[in-house]
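REQUEST FORM: STRUCTURE PREDICTION
Request ID: SP-0412
Submitted by: Lab K.M.
Chain count: 1
Length (residues): 519
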Amino acid sequence: MFKAKKFTIIFTFFAIISLFGTSFTNFTAFAEEVESSVTVPAPTAPTSSELPQYNLYDTDKLHSEGVFMVNLNTNIIVCSKNPDERMVPASLTKIMTALVCFEKISDLSQIVECPYVCFDEFWGAGANPNFVGASTAGIATKQNNLTYTDCLYGLMLPSGCEAANIIAYNVAGDIPTFVNMMNETAAKIGCTNTHFSNAHGLYDKDNYTSARDLYLITRYAMDTYPEFTKICQSVSYDMPANSIEANGYTVYHSNKMMRSNTEYYYEGVKGIKTGSINEYYEYNNTTGKWEEIETAGARTLVTTCVKDGYSYLLVTLGAPYYDTIIDEETGKKTYKKTTQEYPYVDHAALYDWAFSEFEYAKVIEKNQRIMTAPVDLGMDTDEVGIVTNGEYYTLLPKMDGAESIVQMIKPTVEELTAEIEKGTYVGDLQLVMANEVVAIIPLVTEKFVALDQNELYRRRINDVVSSPAFVISVVAVVVLIVGVIAARIIIKNKQKEQRSRRRVSVQSSSKNSNRNNRR
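STATUS: Completed
RESULT:
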């Protein structure tokens, strides 16, 4: 009897343990789920945005065929025209020449060599007519007191072509190797429509760039090398004496918008570089001669201008050197030198427009609520405010002001799970004007939202209790208990029956004994 009872107890114990195993596993998973829901990682905010652009100026009014104008305070493109079309840079090539010099030479006070090879292509019988009559900085052959700094001023102010070759020769050992460096640097910066074939920019069909690429080159040079900007924005510079100028001499910047004694002077303009080509020649392999190409020529210009705290960088290419006159009867074209220098006209017009039509205005307040987002398991709340994480200013047309932002494109924010830290990034707000994105603003949560632990445990326990595995386990335990009880009843009944039989047996034995005694 004792063994049967012991077996029943042990069997019941292990059966209950095994049957609750499934439920315990579910509860363990629930506990892990509770822990993970307390530390919900926030997504990472973006670190960059696309360059926004306005298209508000009628570029048909401009003489230049390629235009790229950027507000340097905000990096917003305010005007562009054929920004990626390949065009003749002329002496704007020298911006890259100066940049490579800064990239390769750390000590600009070093003396440079001025060999004949740096001058030969500009004169002599059989010389390339595109190179004859090139602008110079007055440097003498074999001059022995010239530094890199002197060359850079001679390059960027009077646009000295011999200065370009001298820099190339001294930096790289020969001019072709230096030109390769120019193209490598252009590729590094991100230019996609640029190729250089010489260091000075005199006409060659394989020497070309685009307005956007030239902006990238100039901006990189200005941002990386402050001395580049200083040189380009200087009005004049005193060059050392040489065999031509025994007492030294002064060179002046070719940009007339910087010089107050010219009709094109524009207050606030600083630098950067002028360029022009009036005649193009191509070599005819059949005839063995250079032949002039019928063209209106090209004037180019890069300037910066600062006024009332606003700063712009403007690149123009392809303004005509000559006006084209077409005979109505014969259709024959003739070319007459323009009465105005069109790059200056275009730059003045664009600066007048930009300074009068744009302002730097606040469009979003600090912590301005934009929307709300639903919250799950929040303590005493089911939503949280979504706000901007700071004040936001941008360049806007004065005529519209802040109201010119005609649309706010809000992100789709999925339900957030508590707990949620204040300032958690949830998405970006896009400010759109004239179908152009002018600002991308990160959005964050307005406040801390605590986790409702009671609700979390109640919900998870309910999940466990209502799970099929738990129901099956409970039913199994009930059946087991009923079975154990039934087994105990059966055992007790059997024990009772056995005791009853023993009593009957004892009584029968007693009667038989009494009979024997009477005998």
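NOTES: Residues 77 and 352 are 16 Å apart (CA to CA).
Reviewed by: T.R.
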